[in-house]
Design brief:
This protein has 2 helices and 7 strands, in the order E-E-E-E-H-E-E-H-E. The C terminus is likely disordered. The two termini are 36 Å apart. The chain has a 5-stranded mixed barrel. By secondary structure, the chain is mostly beta strands.
Length: 166
């Protein structure tokens, strides 16, 4: 029987990306994304919410795009797969971290906080699309990125314990 390891998230960056460049030139970008569930408590009739934090790892060209365009608060769509890696903390204790290795990423929401000047939202206000001329004059299109075929992380990736916890 076939198996599937696929994750799709839409969330907001908790802080600016952390980017590393390895001696061989490969790049890795780490971000944390918050997703929030909201619901109405049936007993108290109050609104409740719970936020979950996700660690995302971008490699290669995706890492470069993340470094250039994403900032804290940016809303993004990410597709990828779960990866668990083992690492040793400063006290010599082995620990495990589960991350999402991103295959695709798309920037959502306004351009504010994405490394570009803010030109207002593209929706023209009140949820209506702005005229095409206004959208094209506001700012260049946001890139949509897809990773190259999956490759192994650069050597030394598994023993980077200074980035845990993120």
């Amino acid at each position: 029987m076939a198996s599937v390891n696929k994750v799709i998230l839409v969330g907001n960056l908790g802080r600016d990306p952390e980017v590393r460049t390895f001696p061989n030139g490969d790049r890795v970008a780490n971000v944390t994304i918050a997703t929030t569930d909201k619901w109405k408590d049936k007993q108290s009739n109050e609104m409740r919410e719970a936020t979950e934090w996700h660690r995302i790892v971008f490699n290669g060209r995706l890492a470069e795009i993340v470094e250039q365009y994403l900032r804290k608060g940016a809303q993004i769509y990410v597709e990828g797969s779960l990866r668990t890696r083992k690492w040793t903390d400063k006290d010599g204790i082995e620990k495990y971290t589960t991350e999402i290795r991103a295959d695709q990423m798309q920037m959502l929401g306004s351009r504010q906080g994405m490394g570009e000047p803010s030109h207002g939202d593209d929706d023209g206000g009140y949820g209506r699309p702005a005229p095409a001329a206004a959208r094209s004059a506001a700012a260049p299109a946001r890139p949509t990125a897809t990773a190259a075929p999956a490759t192994r992380p650069p050597s030394g990736f598994d023993d980077m314990d200074d980035d845990i916890p993120f």
